[in-house]
Write a structure and sequence with these properties.
Blueprint lengths: L1 E4 L8 H11 L10 E5 L4 E6 L7 E6 L5 E10 L4 E11 L4 E4 L10 E5 L3 E8 L3 H5 L8 H5 L27 E9 L10 E6 L6 E6 L3 E6 L4 E7 L5 E6 L5 E6 L3 E6 L6 E6 L3 H6 L39 H19 L6 E6 L6 E6 L5 E5 L8 E3 L8 E6 L17 E2 L10 E6 L3 E6 H6 L8 E4 L6 E3 L7 E6 L2 E6 L1
Antiparallel strand pairs: 1-2, 2-30, 3-4, 4-5, 5-6, 7-8, 8-9, 9-10, 11-12, 12-13, 13-14, 15-16, 16-17, 17-18, 19-20, 20-21, 21-22, 23-25, 24-27, 25-26, 26-27, 28-29, 29-30
């Protein structure tokens, strides 16, 4: 089911509105509508925007506790003013991450990768080109085009390139998804499950994966060979991300640490943060007040949204959650308390690197309502702790504003229910978080770092349920995608 929803308020300046229309002219979406919605038949996981600037296209997978799961690709249809499914394919087990190929100038194949039981490379083809792509010859180029080399993505025995994709269940499907390669990080008959991946934007031949077997693996997609594999953590690795460039990446895991690696010197790694014990967290409140370049360290930050900030339905942001969410939060708090009592480190489950300013990254723990912003030049102590979601809520996702995002305009209203502010940040300064309190907040991190009295999100959105996935990328910088269970929503910011 796909629906379009009206804007919550009129736009402000005609010039600002005109700029947004120009930016959206390529894909046909009206920025004044503000919000479009799509509902999948199952819980959505692994959401990611395509990097193509000429279309509003997203890929995601199903989250079902069965062997057979699905990948879907949806696209905004200008004629129908809706998000419609254009392709569907089976995927073994739920995917843990889906990512489209980094944007490059000129034409390139519509490739994306998924992690789960293996690292898999897929190509999205239109039906008109399907016959030509169904069984590529050995000379047919694939990821090699993106890598700038002459190599090709050759299908492995797990995924023959000539295999036909599963037929879509929707007559609206106009594309097909073809398996191009399946890569295993072990020579055994099976490999440990992969928890995350990140495709390098600078050198698109490189892709790094994280695994529950404590390792990170850097792949050369052009040659389909492992470039390097290393034991990254003492326990499971839950997330991995590249910095700007092609040499440095970082990972987080169940041991509660953020570790940074440099491909030019893999003999050593840098631990830039470790989750503190409750006693250590209390002691840290007396830490120094200034970090690099005057950015205040804020271990005591307790950023709360004023109850007067309106949500999508007119209720105050931070209002009490449903009984279901309250019960879930109580269970999460009990589990966290048990781990703390046992002296265990709290796992760090997600890591997002600021590609506009690679000195900064953000991370959060399992069952936690705090997002910590780290400066790699000032290890060990967060420069900011964002704690604005409802008490007991758990952060599920976070994303930095991409390069190309121009920021908000004073008085301008974007998507329905998105409360604007007078803040005017942009790429590298804005961070969005989503949590189980059914809210997504956009934080002006730079302003918060300079002004200790500014302790509220610059924008707030009340979602129809727990915000579990977020995607905000350079290809479509003015549109934020989020999921709440089976619902996918895209918001114009």
């Amino acid at each position: 089911m796909a629906t379009a929803m009206g804007a919550g308020a009129a736009t402000d300046a005609a010039s600002a509105s005109g700029e947004r229309r120009a930016a959206g002219a390529g894909h046909g979406a009206d920025p004044n509508v503000g919000l479009y919605e799509y509902e999948a038949p199952w819980t959505i996981h692994g959401l990611h925007w395509s990097q193509r600037p000429d279309v509003l296209r997203l890929g995601f997978g199903s989250f079902q506790e069965t062997y057979t799961n699905k990948i879907q690709v949806v696209e905004f249809c200008p004629e129908r003013q809706q998000l419609v499914k254009i392709a569907e394919q089976e995927h073994h087990f739920p995917l843990t991450r889906l990512q489209w190929a980094p944007a490059k100038q000129g034409a390139w194949p519509d490739l994306f990768v998924t992690s789960g039981d293996f690292l898999r490379v897929w190509e999205l083809c239109s039906d008109t080109a399907g016959a030509a792509h169904a069984a590529p010859s050995a000379s047919t180029s694939g990821a090699g085009d993106l890598a700038g080399g002459s190599g090709s993505v050759r299908a492995s025995p797990y995924a023959p390139s000539g295999a036909s994709p599963s037929p879509s269940s929707s007559s609206s499907s106009s594309h097909r998804i073809y398996a191009r390669a399946t890569l295993a990080n072990s020579k055994r008959d099976f490999c440990a499950p992969l928890t995350a991946l990140d495709w390098n934007e600078t050198d698109s031949s490189l892709c790094v994966t994280a695994s529950v077997d404590t390792t990170c693996t850097v792949w050369n997609l052009r040659t389909q060979q492992i470039k390097t594999q290393l034991i990254a953590h003492d326990r499971e690795v839950y997330d991995v991300a590249w910095a700007k460039g092609a040499e440095i990446f970082a990972s987080v895991g169940a041991d509660g640490s953020v570790r940074m690696f440099d491909l030019r010197a893999l003999e050593h790694s840098t631990i830039i943060y470790e989750t503190p014990s409750e006693a250590g967290r209390g002691a840290g409140k007396g830490a120094a007040a200034l970090g690099s370049k005057g950015l205040p360290l804020n271990p005591d930050a307790n950023i709360r949204t004023p109850t007067s900030t309106p949500g999508a339905n007119g209720t105050p942001v931070g209002a009490a959650t449903t009984a279901h969410h309250a019960a879930a939060q109580a269970a999460q708090a009990a589990a966290a308390a048990a781990a703390a009592a046992a002296g265990e480190s709290q796992p760090l489950v997600r890591l997002v690197w600021n590609k506009a300013d690679s000195n900064y990254l953000a991370t959060f723990q399992a069952r936690s309502g705090i997002v910590r912003v780290l400066d790699v030049r000032v290890p060990a102590v967060p420069v900011l702790e964002l704690e604005g979601h409802a008490p007991g809520a758990a952060i599920c996702a976070a994303a930095w504003a991409p390069r190309g995002y121009r920021g908000t305009t004073s008085g301008r209203s974007g998507a329905a229910g998105v409360a604007p502010s007078s803040s005017s940040g942009g790429a590298g300064t804005q961070l969005v978080t989503g949590a189980t309190d059914a809210h997504a907040y956009v934080w002006d991190v730079r302003r918060m770092g300079k002004d200790a009295s500014f302790r509220q999100p610059s924008r707030a959105y009340a979602a129809p349920g727990s915000v579990t996935q977020l995607s905000w990328t350079e290809g479509v910088p003015d549109w934020l995608a989020l999921t709440t269970g089976r619902r996918l929503q895209i918001l114009n910011l």
